[in-house]
Write a structure and sequence with these properties.
Layout (H helix, E strand, L loop, with lengths): L5 E3 L6 E3 L2 H24 L3 H24 L11
Antiparallel strand pairs: 1-2
Length: 81
């Protein structure tokens, strides 16, 4: 039996965390993005640092979306009622 970490949102598109594992993945992604942003802002001031930040953020958000989609009970679809 699969354990789901997320459930589909009641309104809109996507999912929200409902277990501690889902919250850990979500908060871990946010904290990693903030840490990398602060590190690059304090140490590097070049265009390459900005590109690295954007690439890291895109990979982090993509990983979060993939994990949450695979660990969601039910399907992702638009809900307006």
């Amino acid at each position: 039996m699969a354990e789901y970490w997320f459930k589909p949102k009641r309104y809109g598109y996507g999912a929200m965390p409902v277990t501690w594992q889902g919250w850990v993945v979500t908060l871990g992604t946010v904290l990693a993005m903030v840490a990398v942003s602060l590190y690059l802002r304090l140490t590097a001031k070049s265009l390459w640092a900005l590109a690295a930040l954007l690439i890291f953020d895109a990979v982090a958000v993509s990983a979060l979306v993939i994990i949450s989609h695979r660990k969601t009970e039910g399907e992702w679809r638009w809900r307006d009622r």
